TrEMBL record:
Keyword Cytoplasm tagged: yes
Keyword Cytoplasm: yes
TM helices/strands, residue ranges: none
Protein name (record): PTN23 phosphatase
Organism encoding this protein: Grantiella picta
Pfam short name (any one): ALIX_LYPXL_bnd
Gene Ontology process terms (BP): early endosome to late endosome transport; endocytic recycling; protein transport to vacuole involved in ubiquitin-dependent protein catabolic process via the multivesicular body sorting pathway
Any coiled-coil regions, as ranges: 421-451, 527-554
SMART domains linked: BRO1
Domain BRO1 intervals: 1-366
Keywords: Coiled coil, Cytoplasm, Endosome
């Protein structure tokens, strides 16, 4: 896998800026930034100087020195203007993340560390932007879009790390965990891309991103299970090896389906990986079938692959002098008010940390619980699939509909083969009978002659005929086994081919379908209702968290701090922080409700167990039936080819046997004449 062609990466366009009257030279450099690492340094320096400026001069929204700042919104191309210096900072931060994403994607990945670092820097820029700035400036800087960008960048950074791990031949289990984490990051990104609100914000690029990310989810899941299979091989767990390689093959096939329309680099990577995984699976299955004979366990009984997050969003520090250079506004104003504001910001940050610790603890419990349940609200019953013929099977039915003589041709071909086979067998039997009769006559002659001196030897042709007959009989016997196997295979697939050529309703009726009682349906509806409650609880929690973050970001009491005595600062902080009490109560209620919701879900899941088992069994039978029908279609051409090869073989053998029969008759006649001459002496 270390030679696999690399997948393309997603990168973001840079926002374009209007005019800003302050920091003219820095601003111009940051707007027309070069697309290289020097460009990243320019943006970081400009960001730092903006931070120094806004901490001393009231240039925020509604403040005296505020000036209009204009930047384009990425997805619509519209100009967006705010009289707020923080908007300038936010747009510069966005461009910093976008430029790092561009450099990471453009890099040829000769050294994976470079691309990995760029993507981590991009994630860091978007994280700082999401956590420290308002999300109402423009669509491309909304909380949803920034969270999507962060997961995309972390996923791509982890992908680069995965490439290096495979090049370095790291242990199979570690590579599997690294690949599983790539899947986790991309799943988070895919959830955002599937969200209707996010999709409407992204516009036309949403479909392209979603297709690529969905394909990558299955692709890297396949890579993870490939390396789990390698680990099983190292541990000599040959049954597990087969199942992991089978799962990897299934996931790769899903990735191939989703890769339609992707560039040639993607197709090359998929073809390469198919060669690797397909070869591994075929070899493992053959070895297990003929050598090890280990039971192949179900996939859900095997060790799950837990992701190993080895990348992170590299933090942005806008006041780092090593990046920003000297503070060009150091002598403008005293820092007392700014220092007090910083203290209040720390109080807000502490409040946010405390709340987030509770949220993350509950989220972790919820995620672990839902992972253990393995319940997806969208596919918990999967009943709709039984109302349709799957596309792969529909394709085979359509192909046979334009070839109505398929079954007849196969039967006729096998009948012709059987006829030639019988003719050869008859010729060889007649030759053998002639030779046996001649031998019997020779024995009688010897008994009659007794001790009379031996006569001249019989004609030598019979020995050659006998030798050739033995050779043809051996060939016929070997081919007979192949012929029998060919007939067995034909009989196995013939009924399926007839079904595939039948009307579609008949095909659909042949596929297994679940039969649920009213009680079963009620159990399903109850489970879906509770799963919807779980999602509602998640959504409300995310909304409350977002409200809290936005409220904290907008909470600027600098004006109040200027007129407050230092001794009253603590009291002012306490009073100001009370504004968050109501939101905290809502969050506490949401978190407290989780225990009851999960208890109800546990009870519903217990009742669902029997229904789930029944549905799983039907789905397994359905999949097996579909696979069997598809296999029969795909076996047709092979059967026709082997049938033709058999006919060619037996036609050739028939000609040789016919000639040998003529020689046998002549030789036996000559031998009989010779015996008569001896008797007349």
């Amino acid at each position: 896998m270390e030679a696999v062609p690399r997948m393309p990466m997603i990168w973001l366009d840079l926002k374009e800026a209007g005019d800003l009257s302050l920091l003219l030279s820095c601003s111009q450099s940051a707007v027309s930034v070069p697309r290289d690492f020097e460009g990243c340094s320019t943006l970081r320096k400009y960001l730092g100087q903006l931070h120094f400026l806004q901490s001393r001069i009231p240039m925020g929204n509604g403040q005296d020195a505020a000036v209009p700042v204009t930047w384009t919104e990425i997805f619509s191309g519209k100009a967006v203007t705010h009289e707020d210096i923080k908007y300038e900072q936010a747009c510069v931060l966005y461009n910093l993340g976008a430029l790092h994403s561009m450099l990471g994607a453009m890099d040829k990945r000769v050294s994976e560390e470079v691309s990995c670092t760029h993507f981590q820097c991009a994630a860091g820029a978007f994280t700082y932007l999401r956590d420290h700035f308002p999300h109402s400036y423009s669509v491309d800087m909304s909380h949803q879009i920034l969270s999507l960008n962060i997961n995309l960048m972390l996923g791509q950074a982890q992908e680069c790390l995965l490439e290096k791990s495979m090049l370095d031949n790291r242990k199979s289990f570690l590579v599997a965990r690294i690949s599983a984490q790539v899947v986790d990051y991309y799943k988070e990104a895919c959830r955002a891309l599937e969200n209707s609100e996010t999709a409407s914000l992204l516009g036309k690029i949403q479909k392209d991103w979603k297709k690529l990310v969905q394909m990558k989810i299955y692709y890297f899941a396949a890579v993870a299970h490939l390396h789990m299979g390698k680990q099983a091989e190292e541990q000599q767990k040959f049954g597990e090896r087969v199942m992991y390689f089978q799962s990897a093959l299934d996931k790769l096939n899903e990735a191939i389906k989703l890769a339609k329309g992707q560039p040639e680099t993607v197709q090359e990577a998929l073809r390469f990986t198919m060669d690797v995984i397909g070869g591994k699976y075929n070899s493992a299955k053959k070895d297990n079938d003929f050598i090890y004979h280990e039971a192949v366990p179900a996939l859900d009984t095997l060790q799950s692959v837990k992701g190993a997050p080895l990348v992170k969003a590299l933090p942005v520090n806008p006041t780092d002098p090593a990046v920003t250079g000297p503070d060009i506004f150091a002598k403008l104003v005293p820092m007392a008010a700014h220092e007090a504001s910083s203290l209040y910001s720390e109080e807000k940050a502490k409040l946010l940390r405390d709340v987030m610790a509770k949220i993350e603890a509950k989220n972790e419990v919820l995620d672990q619980f839902m992972d253990s349940m393995q319940l997806d609200p969208e596919t918990v019953d999967n009943l709709d699939m039984y109302n349709h013929i799957p596309p792969v099977l529909m394709e085979k039915c359509a192909a046979l509909s334009v070839r109505p003589d398929t079954v007849r041709n196969l039967v006729q071909s096998m009948q012709v083969l059987s006829g030639v086979f019988t003719d050869v067998e008859a010729s060889l039997k007649e030759i053998r009978d002639l030779l046996e009769e001649d031998e019997a006559q020779e024995r009688k002659l010897q008994e009659l002659l007794g001790k009379v001196p031996p006569a001249p030897a019989s004609p030598p042709g019979l020995a050659e005929v006998s030798k050739e007959c033995s050779k043809y009989l051996e060939l016929h016997e070997k081919a007979s086994f192949t012929n029998t196997e060919l007939h067995r295979a034909m009989n196995l697939h013939l009924g399926n081919l007839r079904l595939l050529g039948s009307p579609l309703e008949q095909v659909r009726a042949a596929l297994p379908t679940p039969s649920l009682s009213e009680d079963d349906k009620q159990v399903l509806q109850n489970l879906k209702r509770i799963l919807a409650k779980v999602q509602e609880m998640r959504d409300q929690r995310m909304s409350l968290e977002q409200q809290l973050r936005e409220m904290i970001q907008k909470d600027d009491i600098t004006t109040s701090l200027v007129t407050t005595d230092r001794s009253e600062m603590k009291k002012l902080f306490e009073e100001q922080l009370k504004k968050y009490d109501q939101l905290k109560v809502y969050l506490e209620q949401n978190l407290a409700a989780q225990e009851n919701v999960l208890k109800a879900l546990t009870d519903a899941n217990v009742k669902y167990a029997a229904v789930r088992k029944a549905l799983a069994e039907v789905e397994h039978k359905w999949n097996t039936t579909v696979q069997t029908l598809v296999a029969s279609y795909e076996a047709y051409e092979d059967l026709m080819k082997k049938s033709q090869e058999g006919k060619d073989f037996y036609t050739d053998l028939e000609g040789k046997a016919a000639k040998l029969l003529e020689r046998a008759r002549a030789a036996c006649q000559a031998s009989e004449t010779h015996r008569q001459q001896l008797l007349e002496r």
